[in-house]
Design brief:
Helix content is 34%, strand content 17%. The protein is α/β, with parallel strands linked by helices. The strands form three sheets. A six-stranded parallel beta sheet has the order 2-1-3-4-6-5. Strands 9-8-7-10-11-12 form a six-stranded parallel beta sheet. A six-stranded parallel beta sheet has the order 14-13-15-16-18-17, with helices on both faces.
Length: 533
């Protein structure tokens, strides 16, 4: 990411076109990377492609958006994406939805056919381009005139970066890029949200007065850089800390004595786990995300719920409690300033994970335990292995900020491309993509991008030859075994090598540690397929 004020001298002397105006705008925003899979309606954008930009090619549009998502989260700036008209946006919708749920700032441009032939419904056009990605973009448009494209992209960037962050889309007709346009200077647009001090004082007073508080942390804490403040707040109040259901980030050190564990996405079980706490403070998280139908109260009897969140929509639909819309750093700082002199006994956090026994086969617990021992302390885990998630949470603690990324939407096909984007943005840290066999098949194209970029990513594929998460979930609906969940015959070593990545397979416990160590030591993208029981 480059200095926002630096504009290449040669760019200033070129003819004033929509293309030059847009590239100069991107420079001013600190953007020098474009993720895309080009089609015919995008080609004029890349005429005389600037030398100070890099184009990251993905082999399928959903993979492209996933790479940009990981890059945006890790770089803390909007990812810039270029897609192909209606078909490309359609392919990308799964990860556009995930970016929306992840609150990832993405500026997506989509090609459109020439304005002069749009009335004739030409080949490869988008009939209602601005409507296609809704409701999973914060804003979208197709500018009325070519000269309006730079202003539309500027608005898109400012909107994407305002809390809560999210994806936006601008549809650009193919003949707009060469049209004349005046340079558009960047503006300063505030991104932070500050709550009413009186509202925060209500929360602080209740927190100070309660006897046994619990804190529930969500992705918004890590996203807003409020990790250290959250640790201070928990220690100041001797409050147990839970992770919100299905959170896509780690927002509290999981080896900390006050860490209590992970809340499930079930109303009754959340209430059971929070019994005994007379105050629940949700930070940067919905209150609460549910996966199955539930009944009864949303919080234990005799408890109060307070929520600090940067998303007004989440504040509005929370079923109970007091919600304060605020930036997390600002809100938690106010609570810290107003919590002096609180004295409470220290509660006991979660118990250590049970010892992992080595048997005749490799279990997911053995994989997580071994990985926790071997991985570099500052490594980053990008996870998409739903059936192994609770096992990972027990045996692979994350103890540093900006060290864990996962999909917040529940869709598959995110982690592998996201790990490519994270590795591009965090070149000094090891990136580990921890994925299931079913998840891998949604985004194998990411292996090719990783190989072409020579990124030192370790892809760990847990192969149990089935969609195990669905088998595990089947009893909820009184099913013995659902149809369509077996995945026999997949060879991930051959798939990886075919995309240009080094790869190996391990199926016996005796070979696991050495295979994992070799994959982690590699300075090139490497896939390790682990046959798990």
């Amino acid at each position: 990411m480059r200095d926002q004020r630096s504009i290449a001298p040669e760019a200033q002397t070129q003819a004033n076109t929509v293309r030059t105006a847009v590239f100069n705008l991107l420079r001013s925003f600190g953007i020098d990377t474009i993720f895309g899979n080009p089609g015919s309606t995008e080609l004029p954008m890349f005429r005389d492609f600037p030398e100070d930009f890099q184009y990251i090619l993905g082999l399928q549009e959903s993979t492209v958006v996933g790479m940009a998502d990981g890059y945006a989260l890790a770089s803390r700036n909007a990812g810039f994406v270029n897609l192909h008209s209606a078909v490309g946006v359609g392919h990308a919708m799964g990860n556009i939805f995930t970016a929306y749920k992840n609150c990832t700032p993405l500026v997506i441009t989509a090609g459109q056919q020439a304005r002069s032939i749009l009335p004739y419904e030409p080949f490869l056009f988008s009939q209602q381009a601005a409507e296609l990605p809704k409701p999973y973009v914060k804003w979208s448009c197709e500018p009325a005139r070519a000269q309006d494209v730079p202003a539309a992209i500027a608005r898109a960037y400012y909107t994407a970066m305002q809390a809560p962050c999210g994806p936006v889309l601008v549809s650009v007709p193919v003949d707009d890029w060469d049209a004349p346009a005046e340079p558009l200077p960047p503006r300063r647009v505030s991104r932070s949200i500050s709550a009413d001090p009186e509202e925060l004082k209500i929360v602080a007073d209740a927190l100070r007065a309660c006897a046994r508080p619990a804190i529930v942390v969500g992705a918004g804490v890590d996203r807003d850089g409020a990790w250290n403040q959250t640790v201070q707040l928990a220690e100041r109040h001797n409050a147990l800390v839970w992770v919100a259901p299905l959170s896509g980030r780690c927002s509290f050190p999981e080896s900390h004595p006050l860490f209590a564990g992970f809340l499930p996405a079930s109303r009754e079980r959340i209430v059971d786990l929070l019994v005994g706490h007379d105050l629940v403070l949700a930070l940067g998280a919905p209150a609460f995300t549910y996966h199955v139908e539930g009944f009864g109260p949303h919080i234990p009897a005799g408890s109060q719920l307070f929520q600090l969140v940067d998303d007004p929509t989440q504040a509005a639909w929370a079923p109970v409690g007091t919600a304060v819309v605020t930036g997390l750093r600002h809100g938690i700082a106010a609570l810290l300033d107003d919590s002096a002199g609180v004295q409470r006994p220290a509660p006991a956090g979660r118990r250590p994970a049970p010892l992992v026994e080595i048997g005749a086969t490799i279990t997911p617990a053995l994989v997580m335990h071994t990985l926790a021992q071997l991985r570099p302390r500052d490594s980053i885990v990008v996870e998409e292995s739903p059936s192994s998630r609770t096992i990972m949470q027990a045996h692979l603690p994350i103890d540093r900020p900006e060290s864990f990324y996962a999909c917040s939407s529940g869709g598959l096909g995110y982690a592998m491309p996201a790990s490519v984007g994270v590795a591009l943005a965090k070149k000094d840290r090891k990136v580990i993509a921890l994925v299931g066999d079913g998840s891998t098949m949604y985004a194998t194209q990411a292996l090719w991008s990783a190989a072409q970029l020579k990124l030192p990513i370790t892809f760990i594929v847990l192969n149990n030859s089935r969609y195990e998460a669905l088998n595990s979930f089947a009893p909820v609906f009184e099913l013995d075994k659902p149809v369509g969940t077996d995945l026999p015959g997949l060879d991930f070593v051959t798939i990886a090598k075919g995309h240009g990545c080094a790869a190996q397979r391990v199926s016996q416990p005796a070979g696991l540690k050495a295979a994992l160590q070799a994959a982690l030591d590699s300075h090139e993208p490497t896939l390790l397929e682990i046959i798990v029981d």
